[in-house]
Amino acid sequence: MDAANYLYLSVLLFTIGAVGVVVRRNAIVVFMCIELMLNAANLAFVTFSRINGDLNGQVVAFFTMVVAACEVVVGLAIIVTIYRSRRSASVDDASLLKR
Amino acid sequence: MEFSAPVLNYTLLSPMLILLGGALIGVLVEAFMSKALRPITQLSVTLGSLVLALFQVWKIRNEQSTGAAMGSVVIDGPAVLLQASILIISIISVFLIADTEQFTALAASLPGSEEERHALQTGNQVTEVYPLTLFAVAGMLLFPVSNDLITLFVALEMLSLPLYLMAGLSRRRRLASQESALKYFLLGAFSSAFFLFGAAFLYGYSASITFAGIRNAVVGGGGNDVFLLIGIAFLSVGLLFKVGAVPFHAWSPDVYQGAPTPVTAFMAAATKVAAFGAMLRIYYTSFANAQWSWTPMLTIIAIITMVFGSLVAIAQRDVKRMLAYSSIAHAGFLLTGVIALNKPGLEASIFYLFAYGVATVGGFAIVTLVRDSAGEVTDLNRWKGLGKRSPWVATAFAGFLLSFAGIPLTSGFIGKFSIFSAAYESGAKSVVIAGVLSSVIAAFFYIRVIVLMFFTDPVEDGTGVEIPSSLTSITVIFSIIVTIALGVYPAPVLNFISTLATFIR
Q1: Range(s) of the domain holding residue B457
Q2: Distance from CA of A62 to the nearest CA of B (A)
Q3: Is B254 an 8 Å CB contact of chain A?
Q4: Residue B123 lies in a domain
Q5: Which residues in chain B (194-253) have CB-CB distances under 8 A to chain A?
Q6: Are B193 and A34 within 8 A, CB to CB?
Q7: Which residues of A touch B199 (CB under 8 A)?
Q8: Where are the bilayer-spanning segments (chain A) (predicted)?
Q9: Which residues contact B94 (CB under 8 A, 6 or more apart)?
Q10: Does any domain span residue B278?
Q11: Cα–chain center distance at B10
C-alpha cells in the first residue's frame, strides 16, 4: 500500500485531536485529544522513516512515547488536584482568573 | 552485531549534568531529611549547583564543538552566552523562591482543608519547588544547545513539565494557582503536539533529524516544499507559544497572575531566554536559506504581538497581568531580532534577552514586597502613593519600568536600539516602524504606573511594603545595578557578546 495513505491518516488523527481540544470541555478528554495529536505525530514520524529509509524517525517515536508518559504523570496530577478542589474537571469551570 | 559506545564530552555537558545531579540530590533531600533542615539544605544544593554550573559555562566559553553528545548537542559562543544568561537569571530567581511564605505547605492537600492547616502549623513545609526548578533550568540549558529534533523536543518538555507544576504551588489563592497550572499545562501540551507534528514533517522533508541535515536539505532544495512549509509553521507554533507571541499568548496573563510570584519571575525571564535561544539557533542555522517561507509569517506575528501587547497592557488593573502583557510586547520586540537574520541581530537579541530577563526578575521581586495582611497586593489602584511610603522600593520599580519602556540610560534602551537597528539593516523596515510605535504606546502605561506611585496620594488600606529579606534585597540590588550599568556603559558586554556570537553549524 502506498505509504502516503498513512500520512493522510496521521493528518486526519491530528486534526481530530486538535478539534477535540478546542470543542471538548472536560479536562481529561482534552488531554486525551492531546495524546491523540502526539500519536498522530508519531505515526507521521514512522511513516516518514519508512518513506525515507532512515531509522531515526522510529527512534523519535520511542522518545515521544516516553515524553508522553511523563506528560501524563504531570497532567493527571494537575487535573486530579483541580478535581479534588472543586469537584469538577470542566475547563469552563476554571475561570477564577479574569479574562 | 557490533555496538560502539557513544562518546560524550563531559566537560561540555557538565553545566547540565551538574544541575540534573543537584536536582536528584534535591529529590533525595526532600524524601529523607528532617523538616527543620530541609529548606536550608535544598536552598544550598540548588544555589550550589547553579553557581557551579555557571562556573563551568565560564570555563567552556571558548569551546566550539558539535560533538559534545554525538552531534545532539552543540556548544558554541551563543550557546555559552545563553546558558550563562539563563543561569544568572535562575540564581537571582532562586533568591526569590527561597521565600517559602509564597509556597503552599503541602501541595497535595485540599485548599482550606484540615490537612493543609496542620502542615502549616507544624511547619511541615514541603520544598519540592527547588528540585523542580533545577530540572527546569537543566531543560532550559539544553533547549538552546540542541542540535537535533529529538533533543529539542525532550528539552522542551524537560523545561515545561516542572514549570506546569510550579505554577500550581501558590500558598494564597490556591484555587487560582491550580487553575493557572491547568491552563498552562493543557495549552502547553497542545502546543508541544504542534511542535512535534512540525518536527515530523521537517524530518519527512529532509530525511534527517539533525539541524545540519535539515539545513543541507533546505540549501540543496529538491525536497517537497509543502512538507517544509508545514514543518516550519507547526514547529514555530510550539516555539511561539513558549515565548508568548500573539496569537499563542492566551496562557500568559492567567499563568503570570495565578502562579506564585517568584515562579512567575523565573518563568517569565528564563523561559524566554531559552525559547528565543532555540528559536534563534534553528532559524539562523537550519531555516536560514528558506527565509522566503517564514519571514512574512514572523513579520506579521511580530507586529501583531508588539501592538497587541502594548495596547492591552494599558487596560490592566493588576500589576502581574500588566507585566504579562508587557512581556508579550517584549516577545514581539525580540522576534524582530529573529527576523533580522544577521549577526548584529543575533548579538542584539542575546543582549536584549539578558537585559530584559534581569529587569523582569527585579520587577517581580518588587511585586513580592508589596503586601497587606492577606498576602501580596497586585491591584494597581492600591499601589497609589507607594513612592511616598517606601521611596527606595518604588524607585527601583520605576527603574525596571523605565528599562522595559526603553528609556535611555537603562539596559532596555540599548537592547531596543540595537535590535531595531539590526532589523533595519536587514531591510525589515515595517517591523521596525511598528516596533518604535508600540514602544511609544508601551511607554505610556509604564509611565502611568510611575505617576501612580509617586504623584498620587496614598490610600490607607493596610497596603504596606514588606522589609525585604536579605536574599530578595540581593536580587533587587543586583537587577537594578545590571539594568543601569548596561544602560550607561554597555560597551564591554556588547563587545564580549560580539566576539562570541556566531553559530557554528
Answers
A1: 10-500
A2: 10
A3: yes
A4: yes
A5: 194, 196-197, 199-201, 203-204, 207-209, 253
A6: yes
A7: 41, 45, 60
A8: 6-23, 28-48, 60-83
A9: B43, B46, B47, B50, B130, B133, B266
A10: yes
A11: 26
Q: Is residue A34 part of a domain?
A: yes
- Chain B closest CA to A19's CA: distance in Å? 11
In angstroms, what separates the C-alpha of B51 from chain A's closest C-alpha? 28
- How many whole angstroms separate alpha carbon B421 and alpha carbon B201? 34
B416 domain residue, yes or no: yes
Q: What is the pLDDT along chain B (505 residues), one digit of tens a residue?
A: 788 888 899 999 999 999 999 999 999 999 999 988 999 999 999 999 999 999 999 999 988 888 888 889 999 999 999 999 999 999 999 999 998 888 988 888 888 888 888 888 888 888 999 999 999 999 999 999 999 999 999 999 999 999 999 999 999 888 999 999 999 999 999 999 999 999 999 999 999 999 999 999 999 987 889 999 999 999 999 999 999 998 999 999 999 999 999 999 999 999 999 999 999 999 999 999 988 899 999 999 999 999 999 999 999 999 999 999 999 999 999 999 999 999 999 999 999 999 999 999 999 999 999 988 888 888 888 888 888 888 999 999 999 999 999 999 999 999 999 999 999 999 889 999 999 999 999 998 899 999 999 998 887 777 778 788 899 999 999 999 999 999 999 999 999 999 999 888 7
Nearest CA in chain A to B111: A85
CA angle B167, B171, B174 (to 5 degrees): 65
How many interface pairs between A and B have CB atoms less than 8 angstroms apart? 135
Q: B67: burial class by Cβ within 10 Å (0-12, 13-18, 19+)?
A: middle
Domain around A54: 25-88
Find all residues with CB under 8 Å of B151, minimum gap 6, and list them: B69, B72, B73, B142
The ipTM assigned to this model is 0.96
Q: How far apart are alpha carbons B367 and B256 in whole angstroms? A: 12
- Tally the domains of chain A: 1
Task: Kindly report the CATH number assigned to the domain that includes residue A71.
Answer: 1.10.287.3510
Of A81, A85, A97, the CB nearest to B254: A97
Q: How many domains does chain B have?
A: 1
Query: Model's pTM, two decimal places?
Result: 0.95
Query: Cis ω on the peptide bond leading into residue B247 (within 30° of 0)?
Result: yes
A5 within a domain of the structure (yes/no): no
Q: Is A9 within a domain?
A: no
